[in-house]
């Protein structure tokens, strides 16, 4: 398993000013959970942050904990008000630099796991504005 942290690209900027940003989505069993995961994937592909394994933090996997602790800043993307990803990071004692809650963007939670690529693009735009 590769736990390498990918630094943020030169042209991508986060308002937190960090150079190594870990992105932790909730990836839950709902539309907003899957949307959080898709947003994290896109942020990773764009070099804005390094998508990391939230469930590995909850599982207390040593290498993943060390990778998260090595980040200059952490972005947590939760889908719904349960805020499972935020709770996972807090339980592990990992400070969160930016917390994003997708249902705060007027997205209704449902059990449809098939996400619309157009919605991913729209929400990604909103998320990058928050960074």
Report on this model:
The protein is an alpha/beta fold. The chain has one domain (20-130). The chain contains five helices and four strands. The protein has helices at residues 31-45, 54-58, 62-69, 84-92, 117-130; strands at 21-25, 50-51, 73-78, 98-101. Helix 1 links the parallel strand 1 (21-25) and strand 2 (50-51). Helix 1 crosses helix 5 (117-130). The longest helix has 15 residues, at 31-45. It is globular, with a radius of gyration of 14 Å. It starts with 20 loop residues before the first strand and ends with a helix.
Give the topology, please.
Layout: E1 21-25, H1 31-45, E2 50-51, H2 54-58, H3 62-69, E3 73-78, H4 84-92, E4 98-101, H5 117-130
Parallel strand pairs: 1-2, 1-3, 3-4
Helix pairs in contact: 1-5
Number of strands: 4
General shape: globular
**What's the story with the biggest beta sheet?**
4 strands, parallel
- Helical content stands at 25-40%
Please tell me the total number of domains: 1
SSE order, one letter for each helix or strand = EHEHHEHEH
CA-CA gap between termini: 29 Å
Concise synopsis of the structure shown:
This protein is an alpha/beta fold.
Features:
5 helices, alpha/beta, 131 residues
